[in-house]
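[step 3/7] inverse_fold.run input=structure_tokens len=652
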């Protein structure tokens, strides 16, 4: 088709097929769909057999206690053995597991043998510190190899980890440590970001003040910055880990043994501790990494740019790739340090073949200009992935053409912290892809789109995305709150998992994700609840009331816009919005800092007192207002719009 003919097609009509060459060598072939459809349990059974089990399971799936599933019932395995030991045992000890690139240009090359030694030492150190199977360990780290080593060491001894993103505040860290009652925190003095050192130990000190349940803090030396030291509690990683033996006899754990807890925002102010277990999770992480990213462990160099603080970092930096014996790149810093070509320099330096990143990053690079990627040799790339939010067709095309030289399949992968692994995505050697569509459920996964009444909508229509069958990596609950688990995911539609996303089928049966339908924002691919930001705002002494909405943002997908009513006696001055933005960053973390704060006199509410966010979104996105007739006081919107023009706003 000519370029011009392509231009005239709508995005829904454009299809890019994998080359014959790619299709012929792909790990995932078309027959996978039929096999999974005809014998779902048999299909997942086969995927689980790719792992190394100490005890074979007696049943693939037990769904009798729905909505809590058990997978590979009675099976026993050790996750770290699957990610490390078995590759060494197979003769691949000298294969590079991790090419580490620090922001300042320091590097480490870590082979699978090195990784086995380090994970064993770390496991021995945790044991010396009294950590036993079942004990929770919080990990609050920069993107350095010790973050991955810590996760694997926890898994090795059966201690569920709770990784808290290093960008979260002391307050956020505190509530997560408390909720999981972690007895150990693994951290670093700090990390490097945007050319300077930021502190982590200092936030841990603040978080666990007066929290005697935390017995020890294990500290990796990264930045060498000054830290406060409590010698009854704090231990340098170098002191305790390096003197341990490099041999550690791993124990096999039940397939349903908790592997980790990862907190994510819900529609209330309190984050949910999403619980994942062992056998099913690793089966799906490994299977999806093999077929969606088409990993060839002998030749590929894989790079997922996510931080281990998010689920993408769990499933596609730590567990999936290492279970598959991949060679991967881990980069500590930001894409523009010391220059805007840093990522592309890294791709060229290591010969990256598979790149997995987020639309927000792609749009940022588009904005910076083609000259940065074009200055580097990207010809090793053969597959590109996207995750975290809907990718707009323009960004998809740019990714394909400028980064992928028009010859790399793109996999737009839809999934969630809760799903544990990829659910909806093309298979790169099979699926004809449309720019902006995640296409369809992968083999072994079933999804539907329902209307308000719970009836499946047909092709050409939209509604609520649900998952109709249990899947191996599904969450097993919310830590400490099974009622909330049932209420959040299983009460909207009978016996179906409600994901919280809107979606539509196009006329050809491809799925287009339409964003969240609940009060959850998606900022740079990260989930933040409106309520959480509102709570942070009203915790400031000058704030009487706050309403927060996610407004369209060219780069970050959504930006946080807050409408704030000040307490009587608090003056609206030039510094107020600035101070409130800083306050939110301190309470939650920099990612939650509102893009804009509008000081208003009133908020639009229904007669029953519910804030009408829809109208606030109209204001935030400069649209004509929608229907205002259900407002208790319809004149309020005039007040807000007037106030808008005189209000102080900020932009970073
Ligand atoms: C929410 C899950 C999955 C890892 C990163 C985010 C949105 C995720 C896509 C995609 C459209 C997407 C959804 C989902 N989302 N991937 N490919 N297309 N939307 O994990 O923080 O648990 O957020 O991210 O809204 O519900 P998360």
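[step 3/7] decode complete -> sequence:
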């Amino acid at each position: 088709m000519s370029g011009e003919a392509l231009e005239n097609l709508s995005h829904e009509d454009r299809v890019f097929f994998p080359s014959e060459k790619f299709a012929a060598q792909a790990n995932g072939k078309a027959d996978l769909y039929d096999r999974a459809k005809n014998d779902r349990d048999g299909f997942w059974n086969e995927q689980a057999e790719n792992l190394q089990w100490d005890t074979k399971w007696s049943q693939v799936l037990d769904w009798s206690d729905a909505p809590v599933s058990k997978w590979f019932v009675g099976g026993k395995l050790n996750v770290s053995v699957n990610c490390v030991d078995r590759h060494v045992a197979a003769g691949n000890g000298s294969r590079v597991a991790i090419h580490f690139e620090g922001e300042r240009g320091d590097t480490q090359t870590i082979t699978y043998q090195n990784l086995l030694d380090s994970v064993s030492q770390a496991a021995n150190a945790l044991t010396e510190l009294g950590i036993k199977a079942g004990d929770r360990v919080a990990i609050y780290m920069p993107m350095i190899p010790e973050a991955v080593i810590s996760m694997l060491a926890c898994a090795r001894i059966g201690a569920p980890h709770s990784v808290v993103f290093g960008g979260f505040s002391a307050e956020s860290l505190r509530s997560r440590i408390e909720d999981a009652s972690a007895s150990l925190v693994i951290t670093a003095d700090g990390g490097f970001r945007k050319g300077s050192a930021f502190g982590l130990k200092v936030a841990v000190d603040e978080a666990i003040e007066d929290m005697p349940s935390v017995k020890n803090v294990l500290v990796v030396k990264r930045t060498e910055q000054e830290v406060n030291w409590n010698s009854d509690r704090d231990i340098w990683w170098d002191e305790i880990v390096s003197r341990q033996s490099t041999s550690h006899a791993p124990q096999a754990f039940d397939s349903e043994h908790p592997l980790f807890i990862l907190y994510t925002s819900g529609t209330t102010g309190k984050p949910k501790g999403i619980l994942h277990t062992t056998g099913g999770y690793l089966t799906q992480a490994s299977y999806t990494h093999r077929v969606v990213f088409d990993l060839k462990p002998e030749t590929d160099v894989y790079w997922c740019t996510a931080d281990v603080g998010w689920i993408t970092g769990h499933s596609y930096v730590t567990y999936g790739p290492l279970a598959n014996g991949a060679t991967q790149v881990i980069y500590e810093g930001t894409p523009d340090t010391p220059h805007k070509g840093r990522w592309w320099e890294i791709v060229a330096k290591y010969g990256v073949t598979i790149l997995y990143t987020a639309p927000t990053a792609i749009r940022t690079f588009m904005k910076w200009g083609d000259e940065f990627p074009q200055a580097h040799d990207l010809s090793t790339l053969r597959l590109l992935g996207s995750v975290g939010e809907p990718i707009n067709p323009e960004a998809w095309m740019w990714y394909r053409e400028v980064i992928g030289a028009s010859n790399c399949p793109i996999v737009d992968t839809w999934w969630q912290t809760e799903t544990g692994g990829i659910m909806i995505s093309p298979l790169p050697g099979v699926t004809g892809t449309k720019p902006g569509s995640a296409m369809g459920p992968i083999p072994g996964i079933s999804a539907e789109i329902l209307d308000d009444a719970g009836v499946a909508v047909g092709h050409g229509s939209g509604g609520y995305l649900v998952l109709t069958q249990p899947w191996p990596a599904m969450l097993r609950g919310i830590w400490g709150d099974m009622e909330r688990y049932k209420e959040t995911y299983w009460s909207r539609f009978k016996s179906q998992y409600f994901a919280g996303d809107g979606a539509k089928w196009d006329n050809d049966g491809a799925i287009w994700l339409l964003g969240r339908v609940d009060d959850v924002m998606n900022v740079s691919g990260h989930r933040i609840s409106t309520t959480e930001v509102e709570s942070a705002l009203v915790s400031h002494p000058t704030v009487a009331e706050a309403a927060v909405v996610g407004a369209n943002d060219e780069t970050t997908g959504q930006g946080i816009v807050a409408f704030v009513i000040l307490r009587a006696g608090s003056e609206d001055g030039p510094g107020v919005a600035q101070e409130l933005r800083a306050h939110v960053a301190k309470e939650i973390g920099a990612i939650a800092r509102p893009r804009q704060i509008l000081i208003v006199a009133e908020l639009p509410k229904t007669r029953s007192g519910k804030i009408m966010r829809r109208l606030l979104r109209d204001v935030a996105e400069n649209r004509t207002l929608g229907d205002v007739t259900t407002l208790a006081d319809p004149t309020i919107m005039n007040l807000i719009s007037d106030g808008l023009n005189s209000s102080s706003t900020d932009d970073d």
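[step 4/7] annotate
Confidence is low (pLDDT under 50) at residues 1-6, 646-652.
The first helix runs from residue 3 to 8.
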